[in-house]
Design goal:
With 230 residues, the protein is α/β, with parallel strands linked by helices. It has six helices and 14 strands. Helix 1 crosses helix 2. The longest helix is centred in the N-terminal third of the chain and has 13 residues. The chain binds ribulose-5-phosphate.
Length: 230
């Protein structure tokens, strides 16, 4: 990770509440989108603040790909153009999304909203992946829960193989798979990510490697912190 620069987007009134911080980070990210951009939209309450900020910019030719039905309907209701990733030949200029935890090296835990599989596909398809968050999302070390998407077929044996895991009752991914939380230790995120990825029946896990991330915008009481990954 490159060194942090404080107050990259100076604000006259630094945000003191979590909601205000989410809005500030979202508004700063909306400014990174230009005319004609192909934009990946994440899922969650921080992204919900991004959508009006993006719509308010009234950019021309912007086409968005949504990672969940909730984001899709909210974006459409605001007049944003939403298309499928396939319509853009699978390529995006920028993707903007929230996170549940962000560590100092840029590793993330995502999937609080159960959309992390689509979110990871969209992040990987994007030239620039921007993470937006309120201050409490920045942590010294990632820790459980790590959301996982599990295929219905064989879910009992997949969960048994994972061991410390809890199915989220009634929760489904945007693609109709089960959502669970891995509750074991997260001492080495790369090692855990590899093990989770190698577990049959596990569609995708919520650990995002720092290499996927381009920018992290964290709104704090002291102003905006913009971490850039070279
Ligand atoms: C959804 C996600 C969200 O980005 C993550 O859970 C953060 O959500 P919020 O912005 O509501 O705090 O990964 O799958």
């Amino acid at each position: 990770m490159a060194p942090e620069s404080a107050n990259a987007q100076p604000s006259l009134t630094p945000p003191h509440t979590v909601e205000a911080q989410k809005r500030a980070a979202a508004e700063a990210a909306a400014l990174l989108v230009g005319d004609g951009a192909r934009v990946g939209l994440g899922t969650g309450t921080t992204v919900a603040q991004l959508l009006p900020a993006l719509a308010a910019r009234q950019l021309s030719g912007v086409r968005c790909v949504a990672t969940s039905p909730a984001t899709r309907s909210a974006a459409l209701a605001l007049g944003l153009t939403v298309v499928e990733l396939e319509d853009l030949d699978g390529e995006l200029d920028i993707a903007i999304d929230g996170a549940d935890q962000i560590d100092p090296t840029g590793w993330l835990i995502k999937g609080g909203g159960g959309a992390h599989t689509r979110e990871k596909i969209v992040a990987a398809a994007s030239k620039r992946f921007v993470v937006i968050a309120s201050a409490e999302k920045a942590v010294a070390h990632l820790k459980a829960p790590v959301p996982v998407e599990i295929l219905r077929f064989g879910a009992i044996s997949t969960c048994a193989r994972l061991g410390e895991v809890q199915l989220r009752e009634g929760a489904l991914s945007p693609d109709g798979n089960l959502i669970a939380d891995y509750l074991g230790p997260v001492e080495d995120p790369a090692l855990l990510a590899k093990w989770l990825s190698g577990t049959p029946g596990l569609v995708e896990h919520g650990l995002f490697a720092g290499e996927l991330v381009s920018d992290i915008l964290i709104a704090t009481e002291g102003g905006m912190v913009h971490r850039r990954v070279p």
